[in-house]
Amino acid sequence: GGFSVVEVLLAAAVLLIVTIGILPLFTRAISSNVQGQQLTEAVHRAKSEMETMIQADFNGELMTVEAGDQLTDGTDGKETVQFWSSEQKAWVDESEHSSQELKTFVRTTRVRQFGIQELRTNPQTKDWTPLAGGTANSEIHLKEIEVVVTTAEAEQSSVFGPSRQLTLRTIKSF
Length: 174
Known about the structure:
This protein is of the alpha+beta class. Helices cover 33% and strands 24% of the residues.
């Protein structure tokens, strides 16, 4: 009795083929777990900033659009870009971010301000024209707050996939 060398080699070959077939399932599961963790962290970090902005004073420093402030798309508004520092465990401006440290999260916070007359004139459209920075507080009735958190650097993918982006947007009234 017993098994011959050929039978053992054949059984080992079948086991190897089955194992190789299942291996991609494990790597995909690891990839999905990492992406899920990154997305959960991005949601948490975006919600945290949104809560800070919602609690801020309507005409306070965080919410004020100064004269000349513009968003990257050229429209009037205030834009702040920060990076998550794993070393400092805090959001830091680009000038404070270490060039050697990987930018795991990029957070962009935008504030645009509107007058109620814009809504009366164009109630159906979503393309309202924001008020310029430096507009008198008495003319500002609404502020749009947008928080965008991107995982990994936009130009590069993480080891486990492309960067992800989460956008939260709300309107705050005076």
